[in-house]
Each structure stands twice: as structure tokens, then as C-alpha cells.
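Notes to self after the call with IL:
- keep both proteins in one doc
- input above output, always
- annotate only the second one for now

Protein 1:
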Amino acid sequence: LASPVNAQQWQHYGGDAGGRKFSPLRQINAGNVGQLEVAWQYRTGELERHPPLHTAMAKVQVNPILLPAAAGGHLMLCTPFGRVVALDPARGTERWVFDPEARIGGYATPEDPEGLASPGFANCRGVAWWEDRQAPAGALCKHRIFLATHDLRLVALDAPTGRLCPDFGAGGSVNVEPEVLNAQPPAVKGEVRFSGPPAVVNDVIALGTTIRDFHRANAPNGAVRAFDARTGARRWTFDPVPRTAADPAYAGWTPEAARNTGAGNVWGLMSTDEARDLLFLPTSGPSPDFFGGTRPGDNRYSDSIVALRGSTGEVVWYFQTVHHDVWDYDNSAQPTLVELTRDGQPFPAVIQGTKTGMLYIFHRETGEPFFPIEERPVPQGGVPGEVLSPTQPFPVKPPALVPQQFTEADFWGMTPWERNACRKAYGSYRYGGIFTPPSLEGSILWPSSAGGVNWGGVAVDPESRILVTNVIRLGHYAKLIPADEASGVQSTPQENMLGAPVRLLGTPYALKQGALLSPANQMPCTAPPYAQLVAVDLQAGTILWKSTLGVWDHSLPPPMASPFSLPLPLAWGTPTFGGPMVTAGGLAFIGATGDDRFRAFEVRTGRELW
């Protein structure tokens, strides 16, 4: 029950500023979780409010936050189109709504400078709350809600009422779009968006960006930008591509690559340690995806966890989890803070989950690894013009959460005929160990560029120090085609997962990539399970259990969904992206599955309870 007596505030995306996704409440436990029933539902009305051109690309990935009573006590969320809604947490009724009237369009072209004729990427994962401790009680905008809009504005609202904060920026908002369009490299309208919630560290508001994938080598600048929470004034900017030789991470970059490479952006979630004035960034890959010949070297700070001083933007330390990324292995999971011990001494840790399925654990202040990390040789032999890293960093513990090898025996089908169809389609591709590079003949990427651990991240029980996360176990392929030989090339307005070649502008190649599916029936060419919930003992660095996550019944493609052809449901696991939460009641809750279900697991055993 969400009453003032027993409600625990979930004041940040991920529960707390450190992204633990943990609730200390114990009222719901293994003994009574089966009694849960739906209390209320809230409909945003966005499907009716927007045309199909826009809603076709809309995603509901929001994590609501629950405000303290002094800030209104609302349950706060944003819709995919950026409307901010304050709900009564006990009843699900609206208290106030703010519509930023954000431009929702696709990518600009000379014929369509606003991008209104193409689908717009519509997503809003959350809003952020901040308290001005210098303002007197009851003052307007002492408690603020910050929204980052699709058309690149940062908006500040009075949390209790939803009114714009007049002393913030120009009448309540800061327009960041001119700076994004004129950065180096520049963007065109629609290529860069805000989708994640702002990160709050003391009186600084930091914003990451989502950038168009699979398009051009000189993709837009992926900077993280920070603003004063009271005034909206610029505080600092961090560019994940070091542009000058004065930057400690410049080694390995060529002047041309440092000038023209984009992305490396933070499209996932950031975390903060306000007491230490630290902001933790999970950075993504540099541009372009799947080919790195235009950007030789390791490409640091991309594909890294970067610790910045929140007040200044100064780099405190960083660690690169993937050198010279050509697999689209972005760090998208929110870094997660937890208190560990080593040799009897406190070890304030930050954990970075990755698409490779590896977990990296560091000292928050120094970047010292909790467990050793080894540079190990990885497959070589990239396409002409490629400059692969000879090694990649592997943590000694914990073990990888998903398989790291693909062999001929891993081709799978529900019948011998279907297995042979997969072998025929992909048997001539390169495959083997993790970090097998994209190739002219095509390469099977295992793990997939979707994960491992994706943007849903991990959840941690701070008492037991057990980590729980959902992982994807699906294959992916990537094939680079010389541009003068590619046929059927298209330039899609969104991420291309449909298998048609897409020209990588500024490179000699087109890219064909997608999920490893059978041409016979669009089923995976690898054996189930396709998703699991996994628990890790963080102190010991061991995996405690793995449970299949999701069933195939109504999500099967026709005619596989026929009850006469297969026994249903099939406990195979479904694609999964959003993350779990854990509670002091010993439960892990998760939706995030393609079968449209919400589940509870026992944290100690992995047993599905409900």
C-alpha cells in the first residue's frame, strides 16, 4: 500500500542515485507474493493522441519515481512523447500533466528539414527529481522535476504543481539543440535525441544522448553536457572522443580520427555518488558501428566506464571494457554502486554490466579492479582497412554470464530440416570465440550486439551482496560488403535490423546485419534458452543460479504458435531488455519479456514463485 506510513520513496531511476534497483521493504515475500493482484492501471492515451507514423516507433521503457511528501508525494513518469505525468500512487489518478509539445520527427533531409515525413524515435525512460536545499520550505521550485525532451531541451518543473520554473534558463527550459547541431562533428535535426533521464549530482544536472546508429563515420558528437540545477547555466561538457593531444586518452588516436569521429555517447543510464562528487558514465561505441578503419587505435574513452568529478566534469578515472569496438558492444547498462569488502577493509564498488556478459567491478574512487582483469588475445583478420586490437580485457571473476564461444555444433533447429536451413544460411560465415570481427564473408557475433546485459542493467541486494540481472542469449551476424558491390542498399530512418544492406558513409563498405534467425521460419538458429535471469555472489565472484526467463506461446511466429504443432508454453526464454529489481523480502521482480508477463523469483535460489 502506498501510504505515507509504509511507502518507500523510489526517488531516482534505479531506486537510488547508485542504480541498485533495491527496495528495503519486506512486507511482500516468498510466502505471500502469490497473492498480488492488480491495484490500478493508468493509460497515457498517446496512441490516440499521435498518428501511426509516430506511434510505430514509440517505446514504453519508463521507470517511474516516487517523490517524498514535501515534493508532492507523486508517482512521476513521462510518456514516450515526453509528456510528464504526476499520479496519485495509491489510486493511479492524474494530479497534473505537463506537455512540452516537443517536436517528434525523424531525420531531417533537404526536402524535409524538420524530419516530419519520417517516423520519429519516441522514448522517454524517466524524469529526475532535485531538491534545492538553499530555498525555503514551500518556495516555488524548491523541489524540481527535470525532463530532457526529444527536441533537445532541458525543462525544469515545480514538482508539487507541474509549473515551469521561471528562474531556470529561458522561462523554465534550456535549448541545447543549437549546440548539438554546431558541435564537432555536427548533427542534423533528428540524429541526436534525449531519451534517458537526467543524472543529478549535487546541484549539477547531466545529460547523455541517443545518436543515430549505422549511418556515417563522422556521426554527431556524443558529448555529455551538465547544467546548473538552479539557473540552467552551462557547467561543463565532456566529449568521449578526445579532440586534442593534451587529453590523457588521446594516445592511439590520429589527428583526423580525433577530429571526425563521433558517438561514444551515453545513451544508457548514469549513476552518481554525491558524497564523493562522482558521476559514472557508461559510454557507447565510436562511429561507425562494425568498422573501425577510420578510427585506428583503442578509441578511448568510448566503450568505457568513466568516472567524472560531478562539479567540474574532470576525468577522475576510466576503464575501457572493449578496445576498438567493431561489434556494437556499447556499455548501455547503468553503473551500479554497492559496498563490498576486501581483505577485511571496505571497498566502495561500482559495477559495469556489459553486452559481452562480463561484469567489471571497480573501486569508486580510484578505478582499482575488485577482481583481476587480464588482457587476452582475441581473433584477428578484419576486413581490408581494419585495425583490430590484438587483445581485450577479461575479468578473472565473475565468470561471463552468457556463452562466449560459437561452434558448428551450436547451429540449432526444431527439426533436422530447420537446423540444416540455418547451416546453409550461416555455415560459411566466420565464427568461433568472442570478438570474432565482422568480415566480408559474414561473421556470427556471439554474444549478440544486443547482449548479454543491455540497458536494463543489474539489481543488487546490499545486505546479501547478491546481484541479479537478465541476460540475452541470442546470436547476431554482421557482414561488410564493398560499397561498389552492394545491391539493395538502403538508408533507413531508424536502426536497421531487417537484414538489408545499409551504406556506412565515409567508409568503403555497406553493412548487412541482424539477428541469427532461420530463413525457414524466423526462429533462432541457436538452442534455447534465449533469456535468463542470473544471480551472482559479488563477494565471491561466483554465479549462484540461472533461471530461464520467459515462455514462448503467443509470441511464437505463425505457424509455430499452433497448439497442434507444439506443446505450449515452451520454457525457452524470450528477448529481454528492461531490468529487474530486488527487495529485502528476498524477491527479484521483473517484466522485460516478450510474453507480456510480470514475475517474481526467489533471490537465494532462482525459483520462479509467481
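Protein 2 (the one to annotate):
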Amino acid sequence: MTTLHPATLAQNRAANPVSSTWLSANAGSGKTRVLTDRVARLLLAGVDPQNILCLTYTKAAASEMQNRLFQRLGTWSMLADGFLREELRGLGVEDLSDLSDARTLFARASETPGGLKIQTIHSFCAALLRRFPLEAGVSLGFTEMDGAAQAHLIADILDRLAENDTGGCISGVARYHAGDDLGALAKEVAKHRLAFQSAPSRDEILGRYGLSPGYSAASLDKELLGAGAILRAAVPILAAGSASEQKVAATLRTVDPDGPAATVLPVLEGPFLFGKTAATPFGSKAGKFPTKRTRAAHPGLADDLDHLTDTVERLRGRRLALEAAEKSHALHDFATAFLPAYEAAKQARGWLDFDDLILRTTALLSDPSVAAWVLYRLDGGIDHVLVDESQDTSPAQWRIVELLTQELGSGEGARADVPRTLFVVGDKKQSIYSFQGADADAFERMQAAFTERLRPQGGLQGLSLAHSFRSSPAILAAVDATFEADAGADLGTDMRHIAFHDAMPGRVDLWPVLPKADAPEDGDWTDPVDMPAPSAASNVLADKIAGEVRRMIDAGTVIAHPKDGA
């Protein structure tokens, strides 16, 4: 009997379908194989294909997994007994007495109504809403809105709001918006629509920033009253002082001493307060500025500057708080006008965006009057949920997983001999979709929550796949070294990579970071607008890499194939 490699044994433990498992899988460790193996072993255990739900992050990943699974099941249906037993033994299956079940799995999976549920969470939500549109309160024939359609719709809405901006919602938010247009901001507002369900008053927003009701720019001006006279007296004296005092005088000349406090304070904070890296960040320099010589020569001015410096320190927090409060108020005003128009426009067209799919599904599965019935009607219920790329799952998406697994481990209504299970695989190090709402920290929070929830039913086993089938020891050692000590503290787990091909040669070259190139001159009007300039850092790096590869080839450098080191 062939002795299995520790990497294969670790994969088989993770693919065992009888236990709920939380799997941390390094890059190249074979997580897709484990997912496929686990589904295959669930089917071998007698679980009906329609009671398995596998949620992946991308359509490409769902397609790859489904192709791999059907390829394996199809192979089993044609293998001779001896070879099939060897295949199943390598999968970790212990009962090899009856091979007929394995041979029929391809037909069972192929004939499942609607097919195996291996899909993205958005595809799952769309299918669920189409099946229960009345219960979910959506249009019977709704259309999923893609990014381009959403951008055009948002642009149309913003144009209409700008044409009739009687409430000042567009001009108000535009005052603080640094982008070329409001489309990107509006899209973010739509994504976080739940945060704008209630519109706080201006005084409520001020209170959240520690400011009193009615506080305004005029209030800030009043608190800085008298600064103008002090500054006018100080500038000529500082200009005749030391080199550092002369620099301060030049800075003070750039601002109108009697101007608005919101304009004057940022200028005064530079010379009058310590920097952010000082022992007392943004603390007052009272008693330390100006120099001792100037203080001795002009004691009255020194006292006035000490008082002004303390005032600047005290008002800096209020200035920033007022600025943040004004921005928040403008943003809420904008959301109050934009979101109803956005929802109405979508409803008129029968459109749902990606966030609608998640929110509507969450509401449907949270509704006590229909949730249990919907889950039962969902092909008789879902007994086994598998979640791929969980490090990029957003909190809202995790909520759907929670709702789908409410009876997890209870055993009630479970079909076949396998109890209901949850299988989650991910790698916090590979989380890259925070811009789409992914929260890497939720990976550990959800693991702790499910561990506690499943404790009465045997718990949630935590496993890891440390072996990498893709890389060499040299490369993996460099990765581990990168995340040593404090650098890997936020990952929550010890960094450890093991090369499956432990004799494979490898090398790590550290190249200097290329600075961002200056903006190129405008090219021909026929050039593609997204074509990077030859001086762009990406192009320069690509040229350097190509040159290095050319040099290695010319020098006869041997580049080993993984099999050469196996």
C-alpha cells in the first residue's frame, strides 16, 4: 500500500465530510482540490447533491471547481476496480467494499434538478430571489445591474439633482469632494446605504464630534479673536530674529491675520505646535517659542505668543472636529436626496445591484414569517455549506452564511448518515478585496463565533494546509521571513510555509522600488486613453524583468522545472 505524503494526509483530514472544519490554506496548498474532494466524499456518503451548497468568490473559481468535480466523478465511473480503490484510498475513504456508489455519482450529480449548487454568493442570492420574488419584495423579472449600467444610472441621477439643486445637496458635498466627479462617491453611498437610513440633524452630528449645539465657523472665529493684533506685532520682530524665526515670519505673512479662523489656524499650527512625531504630538510650544533672546527682549510679546500658542493648541481639535462635522452633514444631505432617487430609478427599470442581492436575501432569510419555509423549499433544505476564499467575504455576506446554517449541527432533518456541516477555507494573508467590502478581521471573528455556536454539537475543528505545491524552499523562506515578528502580528496565526518540492532550487532577488514617473505629455488623440506611458513604472519594471531574463538565457542559467527537484 502506498504511503501518503503528509501534505496529502492534511488535505484528506480537511476533506473528511463528517466534521465541520475551518481551514487556513496557504497559497498553492491545494485548497481547490480539498473543496472538490470534500464534495465528492459528501456524495459518497449518500448526501443528495441538491443539499450541498458551495459558495465561491468568483465565477471562474466556481466553474473550475465544478469542472474538476465532474471530471473526477466521470473518471470514477469508468475505472477498473483496482484503480478505483486506489483513487478512493488516496482520497482518504476507508470503506472500499462497495464501489457501485462511486460509479453512479456522475449520473446522480448530472441529473440533479438545477445542477450542483457551486456558485458565487451573488449568483446564489439572485437565484433565491428569482425563486421567491413575492416573499422578497422584488420585481418578478428583475435584472442584475452590472457596473457599467450602474455608472450610467448614477450619472443620470446626479445630472437631474444638479439641475434642480434647491436644497444645495450637490453643491454642499461638491465643496468637500476632491474627485473629478461625484459618481464614485455616489456609488460608495449606495454601497453603504444602511448607514444613511436615518438622517441626523446638524446638532446631533456636532455632538458626535464633541462640539456644542450650534457651533459654527463663527464660533471658531470668536475663540480666535485678538490673534490678528498679536500676529501683526510679532511678524516684524520675528523677521529680525534668528533664521528659524525669520522662516516663521515668512510663513505668517502668507495669511491674513484677521481672516477666518478656519484659514488662519492651519497656518499657525505649523510654527506654534510640535509635530505629530514629537513626544507631545501637536502640543503647544508655549515657553519654547520664540527664542530666549527674543523673549528677553520682548517679554510682553512673548506672553502674548504663549497665550496664542495655547489657544491654537486648544482650537486645533475643534477646527478638525468642525470640519469633519460639516463634511458629515453635507454627506448625509447628499445621501438623503440621492438614495431615494437611486432606488426609484432602479425600481422603475426592474434592476437590482450587487448590494441589493445581498441585502434582499438577508432580509428574506431574516423574516420570521417566511424564512423557515423558504429554506425548506430550497430543494428540501441545505445540509452542507462550503465557503471558498472566506478571507474576502464581507460582513454582510457572512450574515447570509449564518442564516443558511441556523440549524447547523442540530441533526434535525439531516439526510444520510452525515450530520449537517460547515466547511470554510481561506487565508487572511491573501485578502485583497477590502475595496469591495471584504473584512479580513472577520475571518477570525467568524471562526470564533462558529466555534462557540457549534461547541454543543462537537465543535468546529481548525486545520491548516502549510505545504505549497507551487514554489521552492528559498521562495517560501523569504515569504516567512517577511512576516516574522511584528510584521505578521495582524495575521493572527504563525506564518509557516513548507515546500512540497523540497529539493527544488530557487532564488529571491530584491529590486529597488521604482519611483512614480512624472505625468507624460499628451500624446496623439488616437492613442488609447488607458495606455500607460513608456516611462510608467510598470513599463520600466517590465523592461527590466525582460532584460534580466534575456541576460539569464544568454548566460545559460539553468531554470529548473518542479519535477526536476521532486
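Annotation: Residues 299-349 form the longest helix (51 residues). Strands lie at 21-25, 52-56, 117-120, 143-144, 351-352, 384-387, 421-426, 461-465, 467-468, 498-499.
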